[in-house]
Amino acid sequence: MARKFEIRHFEIMRIDSVKHCQVTFEQVSHSSPVFLVPLNVLFRILAVLTCNMGEDFVTHQRSRASELRAASVVFLICLITYASGQAAGGAGAGSNAQRAGELRECINSDFKLLATSWNESIMHDTPPNLYLEKLWWTPRSPKFEFTVITQLSLDRIPCSTYKGPVSAAVFLAVTQAPVKMQNTNEPFLLRSLSEFNKERIRRAVEELDAFHARYAARQMTSGAQSSCGWAAFDNQEATMLYPVNSLRNYARMQVKTELLSAIDVDMMISSSLEEQLSDPVQFAVIKEHALQQRAVVLPAFEPTRVGPTGRDLADKAVYILRMAHHPSSLSPQVEYNHMYEPWFITYWGGLPWFDVRFRGYGMNKIAHVASLNLYNFTFIVNYNAWIVHRPHADTSVRKVVAREASNVNKLKMKLTSNSLYNKVTKLFGEVKREMIAGTFAARLDQRMVKCFDKLAWLQPMPKMTPSPLNPKTFST
Description:
Blueprint: E1 5-14, E2 21-30, H1 36-51, H2 56-59, H3 61-89, H4 93-108, H5 118-124, E3 131-137, E4 146-153, E5 166-175, H6 195-217, E6 224-233, H7 244-253, E7 259-262, E8 267-269, H8 271-278, H9 280-291, E9 294-298, E10 300-301, H10 307-320, E11 343-347, H11 364-374, E12 378-381, E13 387-389, H12 396-409, H13 420-437, H14 446-454
Parallel strand pairs: 4-5, 4-7, 5-6, 9-12, 10-13
Antiparallel strand pairs: 1-2, 3-6, 7-11, 8-13, 9-11
């Protein structure tokens, strides 16, 4: 795809006869926002070279005028030629591949091959231990400045209706029991992966290679970033500790656009959202709200039927469903309520990170939305775009948590301390207490955090200040 930039106005004005100059130019179009900063610098270099000619510029103005103009024009042409080359290839496949490799190397640099244990993770909050096997970044420019971030297991590779930028973290769980080794205090340390598990990972990468080849061939899509990560577990039960929030964070850190939304892979996005985002006026309205700490909520619908019929209804609903007409596309402010868990659009620097202690199933999204309230977000509803849940069979971990919740709430049974429902309930209680005290901070993968310091091209890690919440916030 051709890349271009257009300069509407360019002016250099000398303010006095010694040093001070002022450069003015307005850029109205550029397909690669990442290039804006270098371009600004280059044009200011032109200003310095033109203005800082000392007294000769003033006293020999007539004799030097044509020479100076010629030199300025030549230099400007060189800059534009360089800029065009950068715009055409700077964000291309080579640059993307290099940065993807740097990110993978950074994340994996302190990796230890440790098998995740159910009891160790539940009882001691042992953080997820992911290894990034491969990253795929397409060179195509984003269709608009909005990215959907998502996470999924390998068996849930999507067939999405959304054609804009996507950042996905794909996960593969491998099981392997650790063998006790001498001279180590790491009981879950693995010497190496089994050949069986190595083959599983190789096949997973092949499958994702093929998926990305198909994705790249779809001319209507743009701006895909994804990663394939795996983690070892010491038994099959432990694989239910799916690192949902770690994956969301990995997907989020790859985003290159200003606006984003964390939407699960089983949610189908209405075609009307793309229409909104493609319209400069509507996009500017959504962006303005997002930058003012307003989460733009996408209403969610659920088919009344399950199975293939429900999935078929969801696929059609994203095209044929229409919301009731409203004079404005956005609602007035909506108040946060306890257990509120909408899907929403916000901006990169305003989206709170996801707490990696939430694993498996339960309360991860509710806790994250509560953190928006902690950071003084308000909520407004987008009347003209929506999402529809594409139903699928319940996962094994969801069935376990539902059964444990029923045993506690209906049968009044007492669960063991290492039950997942018990863990999630206690963790959410701890999060609420921290939010009420104003001390909450999402626990993050420190290997990921370290990369924001090491890789200068990553968007800066946002700094957010919490405000203590009224205890009544969490009243039901």
